[in-house]
Amino acid sequence: MNRVLGLGSGITVDQLIEIRTLYCDAGITRFFLHVIPDELGPNRHELLEAAGYEKYRGWMKFSRRPDEVGRVSTDLSIRNIGREHAAEFASIAGNAFDFSPGFQPAIAALVGAENWQVYMSFDGNQPAGTGALYMRDGAGYLDFGATHPDFRRRGGQTGVLNTRIKAALDAGCTSIVTMTGEAVPGDEQHSYRNIQKAGFDEAYLRENWIPKGS
User: Fold this and answer.
1) What domains can be seen in the chain, in order of their start residue?
2) Computed over its alpha carbons, how large is the radius of gyration of the chain?
3) Which of 68, 76, 129, 199 is the most buried (most CB within 10 A)?
4) Euclidean distance between CA atoms 18 and 24, whole angstroms
5) Phi, psi at residue 107, to the nearest 5°?
6) Is 79 helix (H, G, I), strand (E, B) or coil?
7) From start to end of the chain, where are the E strands?
């Protein structure tokens, strides 16, 4: 979760090297520079490579108008959870996104946090999938959508996605956004396609850069 935000057109090679040194001195060998292409400019590749960074898989950002949501069609039940399921939520989401076990308490802390609603799908009483919704000032942000490998291909991811969209619309959100990894060869893009089927449009690609060799 070590990330650098807000890189603008005035950033220099020396400043980018200083950022890398700061993390290195803290014992952190891998972190993300989040780059919005239009803000950093057309020469960003040369600039970042000269400072010792390499391009990593980016994140496609999606936005959705407040249109009607699709039907929830799954044999799994979907619930807005409380603290009693926080650890299970963190385990499923954390494993799906390759977060270290030490970071899972931070994910669990989202359950019950201000402006957050956290959902899980269940097979009976067995947790199967996850999804979180953050709402503020008329905007809804969807994150941590994941399904345990034992419960895939049962419509759970789409069900949790549509449930969160409906919750955002019911709360009066006029803008709903989410993201997933950019489309790359060899990836089945299940999440990408599910997001588009739920009425989202591609907004822009956020580039991710990491220190070379990390």
Assistant:
1) 3-59+207-211 (no CATH), 67-173 (3.40.630.30)
2) 19
3) 129
4) 10
5) -70, -45
6) strand
7) 3-4, 32-35, 53-64, 77-80, 116-123, 126-136, 139-147, 175-181, 201-211
Contact 65, 203 (CB under 8 A): no
- CA separation for the pair 114, 134 (Å, rounded): 9
What are the pLDDT digits (tens) for 6-44?
Answer: 888 889 999 999 999 999 999 998 899 999 888 888 889
Local structure of residue 155 (DSSP, 8 states)? S
- For the stretch 133-177, pLDDT in tens is 999 999 999 999 999 999 998 999 999 999 999 999 999 999 999
This prediction has a pTM of: 0.88
Paired sense of beta strands 126-136 and 139-147, if any: antiparallel
d(CA 97, CA 164): 19
CB 207 within 8 A of CB 55: yes
